[in-house]
Amino acid sequence: MQFNGVTVPADGQVIDYREGRYVVPNRPIIPFIEGDGTGRDIWKASQRVFDAAVEKASGGQRSVAWFEVFAGEKAFQKFNEWLPNDTLEAIKKYRVAIKGPLTTPVGGGIRSLNVALRQLLDLYACVRPVKYYAGVPSPVKSPENMDIVIYRENTEDVYAGIEFKEGSPEAQKLIEFLGKELGKKIRSDSGIGIKPMSVYGSKRLVRKGIQHAIENGRTVVTLVHKGNIQKFTEGAFRDWGYQVAKEEFGDVCITEEELWQAPYNGKLPPGKILVNDRIADSMFQQILTRANEYQVVCTPNLNGDYLSDACAAQVGGLGIAPGANMSDGFAIFEATHGTAPKYADKDVINPGSVILSGVMMFQALGWKDVADSIELALAATIQQKKVTYDLERLMQGATKLKTSEFASAIIANM
Ligand code: NAP
To answer: What is the pTM of this model?
Structure first.
């Protein structure tokens, strides 16, 4: 079998998805997109780390059949297309993929390759774990208080792409309609954007967040919204979130309101999950002052975009922040930073973001031994103050390693 003219590794096997879980063979085929710019250096380093961890954790019993698929500049050079259909077909067939950063094409065609991938595969949850690794330079006093997984809705809200330029016939038509039919006055020189948020989109996101809490022993799920102002979108998100908690997870979930009444009287019983909600602006204060009170956060698209980066900054920023875009049975794990083109092919950039995205991937596949081995080895390497330039310039007495050397140091620490 071939995709983009490249033959799939003959000895690899397909990952399946049954009853809400990936069924993973001993040599799964996993498509990867190397990424543009620094993606090349990062991918080379990350793949070495992944292969070493799988080999060591399984005693050679398991391995990954990596399969390159193309997007971004490399795809454009080869096929004159930024996102070939075969790439999407391969990801659909093999379900789980990992990617480096991609250049956003300037002018015309695809608005953003990342957004296109998410929309075409309906990857409705953007998942960002944010936790502190000892030794990483941080701008806050107690960065270790942060250990949060953010579930950001990925398909709706103001990111739905329904926007009309000021002065366009479409904007004028909408302004007229809203004035005449619904009695809502909007200045005639306004651009217009639409913020759709549905029961379906909101509930499936919160459901995934609660499932994560159950599967990972987390005891607090927080719905972050701006429902005090945007009542029928953000406020409805909160209400639908509580509905999911009560109707589908009533045996484990307790709402904040219930917690303060008998029989709980403020004490969360073992095995239960507290579901609470916070208004977005207050949440930005809380992650700075009381980060340890939060564990899993479910939030609409725009809040989630801001919150993910704000949280990542508290624990050491972009170079090591991992991420994934998921639906039920499909996932793309990816660097959260861009292509940092000025460092391309210089073997200097921090590969931590893709390496930790790999940790998320192996966790999702149920290869916890592999995930733990990589994460512990990366943490140990940072504690030894062996780091790439971005961390070295902020640390006292650190050794500056190249991208490839950092990967070797991680492997040595496994
Ligand atoms: P960027 O590539 O994230 O780089 C901005 C700066 O962040 C870098 O100059 C570097 O700072 C630091 N940085 C980023 N990744 C790092 C890493 N792995 N290790 C150490 N430092 C790192 O942002 P950009 O320059 O705005 O965007 C460049 C291209 O990437 C654009 O085409 C953009 O559209 C695209 N992009 C893609 C994605 C994605 O694929 N998910 C996400 C964002 C942007 P210093 O110079 O201070 O060292």
So the answer is: 0.94
pLDDT in tens, 308-358: 999 999 998 777 899 999 999 999 999 889 999 999 999 999 999 999 999
Instruction: Kindly list the distances between the CA atom of residue 146 and the CA atoms of 125, 169, 277, 291, in Å, as whole numbers in the listed order.
Output: 21, 48, 18, 5
What is the DSSP-derived secondary structure letter of residue 191?
A: -
* Cα–ligand 1 centroid distance for 332 (angstroms): 19
Where do the CATH 3.40.718.10 domains begin and end in the chain? 1-129+319-414
> What residue ranges in 240-384 does DSSP mark as E strands?
253-255, 273-279, 296-299, 322-326, 331-335
Q: Does ligand 1 have an atom closer than 6 angstroms to the CB of 103?
A: yes
CB-based contact 62:40 (threshold 8 Å): no
For residue 201, report the phi and psi dihedrals to the nearest 5 degrees. -65, -40
Cα(224)–Cα(210) distance, integer angstroms = 14
**Measured at the alpha carbon of residue 120, what is the angle toward residues 119 and 125, in degrees to the nearest 5?**
45
Q: Does domain 1-129+319-414 have CATH number 3.40.718.10?
A: yes
Could you tell me if 86 and 67 are in contact, meaning their C-beta atoms sit under 8 angstroms apart?
no
The CB of 404 under 6 Å from ligand 1? The reply is no
- Prior bond of 322 cis (ω within 30°): no
